[in-house]
Design goal:
Strand content: 5-15%
Order of helices and strands: EHEHHEHHHHEHEHHHHH
Protein name: Tryptophan--tRNA ligase
Radius of gyration: 23 Å
Function: Catalyzes the attachment of tryptophan to tRNA(Trp).
Pfam families: tRNA-synt_1b
GO molecular function: ATP binding; tryptophan-tRNA ligase activity
CATH topology of the largest domain: Rossmann fold
EC number: 6.1.1.2
Number of domains: 2
CATH superfamily of the largest domain: HUPs
Oligomer: single chain
Bound molecules: adenosine-5'-diphosphate, tryptophan
Length: 336
């Protein structure tokens, strides 16, 4: 039997997760974790390129970890850790910087996007607002992946280039120093199709950047209020309605079981069911799924919870692997 593949992903602690992140990323990743040797980490040093408030950083790091755990990550099976707890990462970042062409970094999408924005704004300095962390971001990400000998990296499509860069950078090192150590070449794993895209309260894809999202762990009363605020048309209660043109109904299809969805569809089409009642149904369906996780999340976020011990244990396990890889790399380059 082939050895279990190593499956690794990182999440930047830049804000509270929403229902789209839950259905599109968290839930599938937790299901996959059961079949692989899985490593999930919080990319706090990546977030430092934008997060400048220490309290926000502290809060968000714990919040990401608590979210994974509350959603069902089993820390016995899956290694969960903070990137910053693995100092070997930063040593390897220097080493791999020395085998990475600057031109490769110049072509990175995130960096190029800032330059394009500056050009469009008529700014003569195309690098305005670019810090070296943003520029070097892909190398640090490559190291996150390579130092754990990762086979598979589940990420959104927007991260595809970063995973390709990790493979490229590994290739450059292997070409130069492959007699001493060869990095495993990682592959991205991407979500398929649009079927899994959850709409936001305005009908566009749910996204923090559209401000149309429903936070995953919103307190119950706020969740109810937010759902009440989803815009609907003024069709009277008795009139037949088209379920497929209603965002509330679309959201319901992601949280209620198939029988309930079919029954609700019939009632809307027949007339007699108002938007208010549909919204109540949606609230109940979402709340039934998130309430137990919300409670666990709040326990974990308490200052003296077991969260910090879980992260410390994850770091210990991740570091064993990182130390072993770094030692081999150092020997291969002649710095040992
Ligand atoms: P946002 O658009 O809110 O900034 P991110 O781009 O940070 O979200 O997405 C993080 C992860 O959550 C990605 O893997 C992405 O595919 C998933 N995701 C985000 N929004 C949705 C959505 N509306 N439906 C399904 N998955 C989503
Ligand atoms: N860049 C990723 C994002 O913005 C986060 C990340 C950092 C990551 N290091 C990683 C993802 C390594 C996968 C593997 O979403």
């Amino acid at each position: 039997m082939a050895a279990t593949k190593t499956y690794l992903t990182g999440v930047k602690p830049t804000g509270e997760p929403h229902l789209g992140n839950y259905l599109g990323a968290l839930k599938p990743a937790l299901e996959a974790a059961r079949e692989y040797d899985a490593y999930y980490f919080i990319a706090d040093y990546h977030a430092l390129t934008t997060v400048r408030d220490p309290e926000v950083m502290r809060h968000n790091v714990r919040s990401v970890a608590a979210t994974w755990l509350a959603c069902g990550l089993d820390p016995e099976r899956t290694v969960i850790y903070r990137q910053s707890d693995i100092p070997e990462t930063f040593e390897l970042t220097w080493i791999l910087s020395c085998v990475t062409a600057k031109g490769l970094m110049n072509r990175a999408h995130a960096y190029k996007a800032v330059r394009d924005r500056n050009a469009a704004a008529g700014n003569a300095d195309l690098d305005a607002g670019v810090n070296m962390g943003l520029f070097n971001y892909p190398i640090l990400m490559a190291v996150d992946i390579l130092i754990m000998e990762t086979d598979l990296v589940p990420v959104g499509r927007d991260q595809a280039q970063h995973v390709e860069y990790a493979a490229d950078i590994a290739g450059s090192f292997n070409h130069l120093f492959g007699d001493g150590y060869t990095f495993r070449i990682p592959q991205g794993v991407f979500p398929e199709g649009d079927a899994s895209v959850l709409p936001g309260i305005d009908g566009r894809k749910m996204s923090k950047s559209y401000d149309n999202h429903i936070p995953l762990f919103l307190p119950e009363n706020k969740l109810k209020k937010l759902i009440r605020r989803i815009p609907t048309d003024s069709t009277p209660v008795e009139a037949p309605k088209d379920p497929d043109s209603s965002v509330v109904f679309q959201l319901l299809t992601h949280f209620a079981d198939a029988d309930q969805v079919a029954a609700t569809r019939k009632r809307l089409e027949a007339g007699g069911m108002g938007w208010g009642e549909l919204k109540n149904e949606l609230f109940e369906a979402i709340n039934a799924e998130v309430a137990p996780m919300r409670e666990r999340y709040e326990q974990l976020m308490a200052p003296d919870s077991e969260l910090d011990d879980i992260l410390a244990e994850g770091a210990r396990r991740a570091r064993e692997r990182a130390r072993r890889v770094l030692a081999q790399v150092r020997a291969a380059i002649g710095i040992d």
